[in-house]
Amino acid sequence: MKKEITFAQGLATLVGSVIGVGVFFKIGTISHQTNSAGLTIFVWLLAGFLSLASGLTIAEVAAELPVNGSIQYLEYTYGSIWGFLFGWAQIIVYFPAEAGASSSIFGTQASNLFGNKIAALPISLCMITFIFLTNLLGTKFSSKLQSIVTVIKVIPLILIIIFGLMAPEQHFSFTSFASKNAVPLVTAISGGLLSALFAFDGWVSVTNLAGDLKNPQKDMAKILIWGLGIVTAIYVLVNFVFLKILPFNSIFGNQNTAFNTSIKLFGNMGGKLVTIGILISCYGAANAFMLTGMRAPYILAQNNLLPFSKKFKQANKKTGVPVWGAVTIWIITMLMISLGNFDILTDMLVFVMWFFTIMLTLCQPVLRRRKPNLKRPFKVPFYPITPIIALAGGIFIIIMTIINQFWLSLIGSGLTALGLPIYFYKKKQNK
Question: Helix 342-370 vs helix 70-78: angle between axes, to the nearest 10 degrees?
């Protein structure tokens, strides 16, 4: 595989995969859960803080291990079975569901823009097919395209932030931390934090690009830190503007908060601005998940742990693209879009993905103790406080997901466990 991705392109992929439609729609859900303007901003800050703690911790692992991303971080630390299960979960559900969700919302928004709701499904299928084909043109091309799309998708958000901060309206108060309707403080914060943390989902997947980075041990750590910092700043500032421009009662549970804010700031053109921003965000997120997702089969196939590993382990010599991995993710994504059940499948994998994120975070203290002489170009600051904070955030999500979505968590674990027979069969075959 060619090492063609620069730091800037890797950074754009992380920002592009994390910032999707959540930045436009989550404010309504979080405000409903917190019942407080001040708590709404607080949980965005807390979610960013916890995500950055995880990013700093895993960044040390990325800097010290010259391997191909998070799947191989787990293999190196705990054994091949854990890397395989993580990759298996990413292949069968996570990446296709994430790309499918973004493509489906793109189709819905585009069809509404043109006044033809019947066209939503064909538009969604055409978009993911277009993304698949453009990624076949080459890693260098698709990563450059991702950089351009990320810059474009951030522009509407930057405009909302700049004009919103300068606007005279002031409906937000930092002192309004009391949750209305007598909602307990712990309940308000935990519910809002869970939703906000889901909006940060996807940043770990950028580690799949480690094999394509020109300088992975140096650049991956910087990508994780700078990327999560940028995402946190954008999320907090955009939501601050929403609360500043609109009365809290009009935001509470409202899925059109971004639309209403843009109308206030830019007039009738504001609605079109938000719609265009959503379309670009959907495209950027779907492209980022395709770019990183098609590398998961390639990574597992290097150890002959997948059926047809000889095909999956090959990358096109001219483009550097793992073609069979791309085809696999594209086909599963097309099926999910057609069936329309990707939201349920994504919820199933929330528990599984965060379980593996906790394992990735634990790689850092485990490797420090087991391999004290490893060269560490980057060391997590404030050790061991930072990893403890990261672990606390991950454990919180695991517990709350089990409480709120027990059966989906169980089914998601079962889908992951379906990979075990394949793993043991291929291990036996390899021997």
Answer: 50
